[in-house]
Amino acid sequence: MAVFGDSFDVSEQFANLSVPTILITLLAATVCGAIIYLVYRFFYRGVVYSDNFNILLLLTTVVTAFIIMTISANVVLSLGMVGALSIVRFRAAVKDPLDIGFLFWGIAAGITAGAQLYWVAVIGTVVIAVIYILLTIFKKERKSYLLIVRYTAENEVNVNGVLGAIKYKLKNKTQTGNCIEITVEVKIKNND
User: Fold this and answer.
1) Are 161 and 151 in contact (CB under 8 A)?
2) Which residues, in sequence order, are bridge partners of residue 152?
3) CA-CA distance, 27 to 37, in Å (whole number)?
4) Does the first or last residue of the chain, that is N or C, have fewer Cβ atoms within 10 Å of its Cβ?
5) Where on the phi/psi map is residue 190: left (φ > 0), alpha (ψ -120 to 50), or beta?
6) Is the predicted pLDDT of residue 14 greater than 60, yes or no?
7) How far apart are the first and last CA of the chain?
8) Burial class (CB in 10 A: 0-12, 13-18, 19+), 24
9) Cβ(150)–Cβ(125) below 8 Å
10) Segments of the chain assigned E as strands
11) What is the tens place of the pLDDT at every residue in 39-70?
């Protein structure tokens, strides 16, 4: 370490990371992640709720705080971590654009907790939760359903006639030989 001089002394860089600081940081990130988890679980109004994605939100908050603690404690480690994270590719498709917002919310809470701005992380998480809850409460009640229709090619005119009477969004269409399967999202008001 003598090559880099005194500014890269590892013992000095990790001096501000004591065990209580690490535990408080991870606890703050876990509290923020738990709030995000509960809001997503009880107020999500999309078509397909995913418990695995919800668990990912909690884990993302804690892991992001862990990464930010490491980056802020050691400059050399931060360069290596940035390089390692830049080659990671995620291939999972996001089903609902709102899920990206929740994921970004979890990352933001993890960053602020990892930077040891605990009150900013907790207050910011609570304020965003209240805003989201109010928006979902005052939003017009429309339930979304996925309708899967399987039919043969000769019945396509009949199926299109029936679907033409309702408002829907085509999610998927698969044709294998003479058999066709479509998945459509239907939004219904007042349980009609």
Assistant:
1) no
2) 179
3) 15
4) C
5) left
6) no
7) 71
8) middle
9) no
10) 142-152, 168-176, 179-189
11) 999 988 777 788 898 999 999 999 999 888 88
In whole angstroms, give the CA distance from residue 105 to residue 152. 45
Q: Is the pLDDT of residue 131 over 90?
A: yes
User: Where is pLDDT greater, at 15 or 110?
Assistant: 110
The single residue listed with the structure tokens 């998945």 is: 183
Lowest pLDDT segment from 16-25, 81-90, 93-102, 122-131: 81-90
- With 0-12 / 13-18 / 19 or more C-beta atoms within 10 angstroms meaning exposed / middle / buried, residue 149 is middle
| Average per-residue pLDDT for the chain | 82
SS3 assignment, position 188: strand
Report the predicted TM-score, pTM, of the whole model to 2 decimal places: 0.69
Q: Which residues contact 99 (CB under 8 A, 6 or more apart)?
A: 46, 53
For Cα atoms 88, 18, 76, give the angle at the middle one, nearest 5 degrees: 40
Q: Which two tokens stand for residue 2?
A: 């003598």
Helix, strand, coil share (%) of the chain residues, nearest 5: 60, 15, 25
